[in-house]
Amino acid sequence: MRFYLAFSLLTCCCFHLLAEKFSSDNYGQTIYYRTLDNGNFEVAVTFKGANFSSAKGEYSGKITIPKKVKYQGHNYRVTAIEPDAFRDCPQLKSVKIPPSVSSIGSSAFRNCIGVFSISLPQQLNSIEDHTFDGCRKLEQIDIPQSIKRIGRFAFRDCQRISSLFLPASALEFYSNSVNGCSMMRSINVDSMNPVFSSVDGVVYSKDSSSLIRCPEGKFNIRFPQKILTITSSSFHGCSELKQISFPPSIRTLEPRAFEECNGLDSLFLNLSLTAVPERCFVNCKGLQKVRIASSIEVIDEEAFMGCSALKEIELGHVVIIQRRAFYNCSALSSLYIPPSVSSIQEDAFGGCLNLRNIVVQNEVPPLCANNSFDSRASYRATLVVPPGKVLDYRRSPGWRSIFNVQ
Predict the structure, then answer these.
(1) pLDDT digit string (tens) for 65-90?
(2) What's the domain count of the chain?
(3) CA 361, 367, 368: angle at the middle one, nearest 5?
(4) Residue 100 pLDDT > 70
(5) In which element (H, E) is residue 276 found?
(6) 387 lies in a domain?
(7) pLDDT at position 309 over 80
(8) Which of the chain's termini has less CB crowding within 10 Å, N or C?
(9) Is residue 306 domain-resident?
(10) Can you give the pLDDT at residue 37?
(11) Range 325-332 contact pairs with CB under 8 angstroms and sequence separation of 24 or more
(12) Cα dist. 44→32, 98, 271, 284 in Å?
């Protein structure tokens, strides 16, 4: 009898700890829940079916999530929203989240392209990766004072959000958290935040030595005097910027820093650097002119790849041009390679289909990979070399692929 009673109690306890899925109506809307395995009678809002892709678009209109929901005679507190819970629901318009919710999973509202309003509870701990990714009509989001983390791509492509405020509690924030927020003009930070600061709506490290993120909708930028580092992807997609004046204090430029800044039309890299880092200005499609400071010796991989409007390059005292550095710079028609250049690597000028005139002043042909220049351009381009050196270039790997040498 004791064994039977103990077994019955154990079975009862396990039953309540097993996660179960059920639905309940609230103001005419069916909401799906999953019980949490914590023994506290708590549930999380979830999607219909075995996974989110099996019931895309299940939620629509205006949703109000209740604080509690009744299931099998018990009142369950709603404390979480599961990952992907509302993902790919294009007809969803707004969601009211109760204060009982402290956790919202990654991609919870991803690609809800019609949602314009979401209220976040004040005890929410984090905004996870991709949470609001693709919410193109979302116009405003108030970040609670309890937030500790804003994840990667959390607000990507939220094209109508114009500003963001990081509270003192926010200890994690990434440059790509707001990628694609093309109308965002400012990101301000609470002065009590121990990790980040803001100057003129731009996010910096606490001591203002590192620029973390410039909003994509910003028209101009004024660097603080203490600036030392422009971090990776910090200007990604800042298409409203036409020109940038770099202060002499900058010592580090990280990869992808100015990726897809389509508004830039000219650039003078007057920095005390030895290299333009990889993919630093990739796909800056409006960039027409580039001047490289004399201190820079290396143009790293894919640094200016996809700058399709680039017509003029002044290479300064560059020594090495890495692979695909100017790949697909299709507007480039004339190129002067200074005597300092010793190596041009694979596909450095691949895809430069309109290249017609190449001038090289090196007495000894620089090392040049066989496919440094696009094969289609090689038949139409003219290579101008120092007097008496035509034969040397015609015999040299890479250079000999250019049909016309003078």
Answers:
(1) 999 999 999 999 999 999 999 999 99
(2) 1
(3) 95
(4) yes
(5) strand 275-276
(6) yes
(7) yes
(8) N
(9) yes
(10) 82
(11) 325/299, 325/300, 325/301, 325/349, 326/299, 326/352, 327/302, 327/351, 327/352, 328/352, 329/304, 329/305, 330/354, 331/288
(12) 8, 12, 52, 44
**Rounded Cα–Cα distance for residues 92 and 112 (Å):** 6
Length of the chain counted residue by residue: 406
Stretch 312-340: mean pLDDT: 96
- Which range marks the domain in which residue 302 is found? 265-406
DSSP string covering 169-230:
T--B--GGGGTT-TT--EEEE-TT-SSEEEETTEEEETTS-EEEE--TT-------TT--EE
What distance in Å separates the CA atoms of residue 45 and residue 161, rounded to the nearest whole number?
A: 26
User: pLDDT tens, 14-32?
Assistant: 333 447 899 999 888 899 9
- The confidence score (pLDDT) of residue 225 equals 87
Span 139-151, average pLDDT: 95
Query: Where residue 314 sits, what CATH number does that domain have?
Result: 3.80.10.10
Three-state DSSP class for residue 3: helix
